[in-house]
Specification:
By secondary structure, the chain is mainly alpha-helical. The termini are far apart. A hairpin with a 2-residue loop joins strand 2 and strand 3. It is built from 8 helices and 3 strands; from the N terminus they run βαααββααααα.
Length: 189
């Protein structure tokens, strides 16, 4: 009978999967029903029974369809079906709890992003308002400069000649005496 029993390594080689994948399928329930411990060469080795081998073969040959595996387990014994259903519901509830937690985290992240977007929009609006104010002020300053230039520009004719001071006039010499370049070696005043 020990010829029909296969080790985890033999199963992994036959199904062309890793030993970890086979061990993952060996749940407590599966081990209780389909796994035995055999001494080979003085070493205790886990081996899978023929019915367990058939279940694993169906699992790894199918596309990992959990409904097929559940129905196959249920076809062997009635007690396994009831325990597998309860285990499947606890697994499903655990998955739902994890998904709900992830959903709550995502909701918080979305709220955070919404608040960041609203802050960015407020800052953008403020920047646009300030740019518009700057543009209006610039236009006002340009208008004032034009007004001042128009007041400052003399009309053509005699007034233009009077407004430009001549360098050699008596008034100009008295008001603005010529400065001499003073050098540090020049000792006269």
């Amino acid at each position: 009978m020990s010829e029909n029993l296969k080790t985890i390594r033999e199963l992994a080689d036959e199904f062309k999967v890793s030993k970890q994948a086979v061990r993952k399928r060996l749940t407590d329930e599966f081990r209780a029903n389909y796994v035995e411990t055999v001494d080979r060469n003085g070493v205790a080795t886990l081996v899978v029974t023929v019915t367990g081998y058939m279940l694993l073969k169906q699992h790894f040959s199918s596309d990992n369809d959990s409904e097929k595996v559940g129905s196959n387990v249920g076809g062997n014994t009635g007690n396994v079906d009831a325990t597998s259903d309860s285990k499947q519901t606890t697994d499903n509830s655990y998955v739902f709890k994890i998904l709900e937690q992830q959903l709550a985290v995502k909701d918080k992240q979305i709220e955070n992003k919404d608040s960041q977007i609203s802050q960015m929009q407020n800052l953008l609006d403020q920047q646009q308002r300030l740019a518009l104010q700057d543009k209006k002020l610039l236009e006002e300053y340009k208008a004032e400069i034009k007004e001042l230039k128009s007041l400052n520009i003399p009309k053509q004719g005699s007034e233009k000649d009077d407004s430009i001071p001549k360098e050699n006039s008596v008034e100009n010499v008295v008001k603005y005496p010529r400065k001499r370049n003073k050098k540090w070696w020049d000792f006269r005043r």
